[in-house]
Design brief:
The complex is a heterodimer of chains A (about 800) and B (about 220). Chain A folds into four domains: about 200 residues, no CATH class; about 210 residues, no CATH class; about 150 residues, no CATH class; about 180 residues, no CATH class. By secondary structure, chain A is an alpha+beta fold. The model of chain A has no long low-confidence stretch (mean pLDDT about 85). Chain A contains 27 helices and 25 strands. In chain A, the strands form three sheets. In chain A, strands 1, 2, 3, 4, 5, 6, 7, 8, 9, 10, 11, 12, 13 and 14 form a 14-stranded mixed beta sheet that branches. In chain A, strands 17, 18, 19, 20, 21, 22 and 23 form a seven-stranded mixed beta sheet that branches. In chain A, helix 10 packs antiparallel against helix 15. The longest helix of chain A has about 40 residues. In chain B, strand 9 and strand 10 form a beta hairpin. In chain B, helix 3 packs across helix 4. The mean pLDDT of chain B is about 90. Chain B has one domain: Rossmann fold (3-Layer(aba) Sandwich), CATH 3.40.50.300. Chain B is globular and about 50 Å long. Chain B is α/β, with parallel strands linked by helices and about 220 residues long. Classes of the chains: A alpha+beta (about 800), B alpha/beta (about 220).
Amino acid sequence: MRARNMAAMAAHYLKTAWRKARREKATAAINLAGLAVGLACVILTALYVRHELRFDRYHARADRIVRLVTGVRGGAYEAIAKVPGPWGLAALREIPEIERVTRFVLMNEVLVGRGEVRAYENGGMYADASVFEVFSFPLLRGDPATALAGPGTVVLTESFARRFFGAEDPVGGTLTFDTKTDYLVTGVVRDVPAESHFTFDFLVSLETYANPMRDDWKWNQFYTYFLLKDGASPAAVLEKFPDLLGRHMAAADASVYDVRLQKLTDIHLRSHLFREIQPNSDIANVYIFSAVALLVLAIAGINFMNLTTARALARAKEVGVRKAVGASRRQLARQFLGESVLMSAVAYAVSLGVAALLLPAFRPFAGRSLILFGASQAGFLAALAGLALAVGFAAGLYPAFVLSAFQPTDALRGQARGLRGDALRKGLVVFQFAASAFLLVATGIVRDQIRFVQAKRLGFDLDQMIVVPIRDDAMRSGYQTAKRELLSVPGVLSASASGNLPGGSDWGVPYEAEGFAPDRLPPMRQLLVDEDFVATYRFDLAAGRGFSRDHPTDAASAAMINEEAARQLGWADPLGRTMAVPVLRHGPSPVVGVIRDFHFRSLREKIGPIMVLMASPEMMTVLSLRVGADRMAETLAALERKWRELDPAHPFSYSFLDERFARLYERERHTGTLLLFVAGLAVFVACLGLFGLAAYAAGKRTKEIGIRKAVGASARSIVVLLSRDFTRLIAVGYLVAMPLAFWLMGRWLERFAYRTSIGAGPFLAAGLVVIAAGWLAVGFQSVRAARSNPTDALRYE
Amino acid sequence: MRLIEMRGVTKWYSSGAVRTFVLRNIDLDVEAGEFLTVMGPSGAGKSTLLHILGLLDSPSEGSYRFGDRDVLGLTERELTEIHKNDVGFVFQSYHLIDELTVFENLETPLLYKKVKASVRKARVCDMLDRFRIVGKKDLFPNQLSGGQQQRVAVARAVIAEPRLILADEPTGNLSSKEGAEIMDIFRELHAAGTTIIQVTHSEKNAACGTRIVRLLDGWMEK
């Protein structure tokens, strides 16, 4: 009985709401669109945040897996993500809480071939046979226990296997690496999920890894993961490490290390160590975008609430009538609340469509594997539906309260006095535009910083520089010939070979310096180059000279340093001081030149001390070619032809140095694009709300406008009259947001050692955008009102 | 039996220090079954008196007994009960809900009274029949003439079988023929025993009633 009455009531309300919406299509559409776009924005952001938070959680034993990393006291870096190879094995033997260990070593880019199919591949890693016991990488073919047990074995991911084997069964087949070594395929593993802090295309058994340093206790080259025993605490494992190192190393060596364990699930967002296995993300992004999503949701919710409240006047009569025929306040409130929840449900359905449409544009910078619909998403979508309904409920509370409180006599006369919400509504508009302006300024400053970073003089010239890896050992030892040959190609202006490059691949090996005890030395990085490096890269010299063929001793006993190195070593006149790097077979070497400070890392980092040495041929890994700006395509084609003569086994491959540097700031670029995306939507939603409010305001003043026109006001003066109030609100919102944006973005910029100053540009641009967008929204309504026929307006009363 | 007993009812609005009096010291008794007409020029306070009688508005001073209870100072919930069960309103501009059909408009008071669906349907059909608007039941108010709309409004006012009908210039917006039809309906209702209070400018309409009181500048003429 009761239930049936409720159903009848619900049907009655539904009918009213639906017919109302059909009658007032524009208002309903604006209301719906605003909420739907806002929700779409939240859905996409939530998708991204959820993606970030789920990294590595798919491993069945994720909660028991930790990574061994180590801080290095007095080292060139604070802490490094890899440790020496023997550490993990010794820990497994000597620390009872550890159940399994598995280690990875990154593989250099390698030419993988099978018959005619050949390609450079950089997705390879060496891995211990235990990898399948620690991580949940399911083998589709092969035996996880033995797949990587012997040397010369390789396990392929499904899609990698398909590229080389097509539909054939790869297991038992062979792949040829660098045209000489055959590896036996012993398994196929399912593709590594994108939500992993490292991925790979193929795993080669670690036994295959034949580096002479592999058993060295001080050579940090192994990413080492432990599976802890059930219930074992990482802290208990950690406290056994100093003893363990002490048993195997000299006390002085062991004391340098500050061993740490990282939870597997923390790595992606919270680990920012030197030499991460793959670039990580940052928990700050998760916070930033959660906050931004909430902001947009607030803007959309406010819109909804403002428009519904504004429309309350139009519904005053209905309220009066319903009260006169016996509706209680509670019934009325329930009706209006129900309407707004219903509206939010529809908006959610629409927003799913909008989000699905926007998703492809969103993926490149938020995560390529993001999906909206799917079995795994059911809970997520349901949670968001709950959120949408909650927003509808919250946004409907105020209008429901206002509407149901109307005095029936006033309401019937069409002059609802309950509408004192004007001040609140204005405050909310101010908030919306403050939030929009803030997001715009933030976007502008992020872009400024990216531009600043890319335009900053690095201390060398990276335009028109082509980088070509040396693949072949014969070419390596005869690199001088290769250089000469490539220089003969028209368009190549200069060429240099080196062991590493500016941009993050610098080394940090132990060195000695005249007058310094080993423990007092500042951390020092190394670049390994040839005689033409300084000229090819166009470094500026502060003192002395570059390496030269005229000084044959340069090859093993000469050094160059940068100004920062001279400063930290305290050498006012560094020329002639001696340094040595025994590992690189450089005995006491006088400093022959000082290079003006240059950015050999990303601009997030301060320029540190670095020394430049000549490398022996077997250390050369890459050729840098400066080419002429015009006829680039021809030069590249000619280079490729020449390359085929020099190294027929390895196809020509190259990259541009400026693009390699741009990649250092990929994360910031993505943040910037994402922000722009969200800020754009926020402004759109806020303007939609303003558009609706302006229509309401113009409607409320119909009579006033009629009278003004009847006594001779021009259309222009009416537009000004109607726009003035809103302009003031937008201006106030803008002014509120600016100091906040200035302060918060200042904090963000502090992450960069080299940063742009916050200029007026982003602030002016944001101001222009919000004012212009606001005027557009208000102006449309004002012009319509101003051009109306005054007699229509007056007859309306 | 006495249905209404008003003593010393006064209504004013304050704006700043100035009090604008709309009703002054009204004493009014209405017996059950009366058909009372309130007359007077514009601005005399007729509508305000009617709103106070219908408990849509409250007086600034005075006492008001409806049935056998003092109704000033009732809670909103108790007022809602009276609107639901005891009073029906008819307005000059009909005040139907634009989004509802004739049938649904009639059904609304019964929904608020939580009347069972089968009874609801029967009562609405009965009203449609009685007020000769069966053919209009699926139309919306803006598809009806003024006279038809007002007939729906009267039907809505009486569907919950209230003790009192309050009509504020029910024929004000109607042609004389339509107006006469509405007054015929009121006469029938009165004959059936419903108490009616109407506000009107028309002497002809007033003649349908059993008693006339006149208002001038908020005073009731004795």
